[in-house]
């Protein structure tokens, strides 16, 4: 399946729009406390453990997005938007969400 942030795919005209699809993953504060304990992962100003956790959450959000699109019979997802939000009481959780339009090419 083709997934892209662009509104079109070159040389692949959209035949049918199948609706908006979304994927959301919420990572709890306990994960961040555990990661913060591994502060030694910070190299050159970057926190490797945090980056890995965010990467995994993003991959899970994309997997949900693709699963919804496949259920609708889509060939591609266009116009994808990725957002990161702090949620919960006192910002105790992080939400990674991805949305886009499922289409048939």
UniProtKB/TrEMBL annotation:
It comes from the Bacteria. Belongs to the UPF0145 family. NCBIfam families: PRK02877.1 (NF002776). This is UPF0145 protein PSQ90_13800. InterPro entries: UPF0145_dom_sf, UPF0145_YbjQ-like. SUPFAM superfamilies: YbjQ-like.
């Amino acid at each position: 399946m083709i997934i892209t942030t662009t509104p079109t795919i070159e040389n692949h005209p959209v035949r049918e729009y199948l609706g908006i699809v979304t994927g959301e993953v919420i990572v709890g504060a306990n994960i961040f406390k555990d990661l913060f304990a591994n502060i030694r992962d910070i190299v050159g100003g970057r926190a490797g453990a945090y980056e890995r956790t965010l990467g995994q959450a993003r991959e899970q959000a994309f997997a949900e997005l693709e699963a919804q699109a496949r259920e609708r019979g889509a060939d591609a997802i266009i116009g994808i938007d990725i957002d990161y939000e702090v949620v919960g009481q006192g910002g105790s959780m992080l939400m990674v969400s991805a949305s886009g339009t499922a289409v048939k090419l």
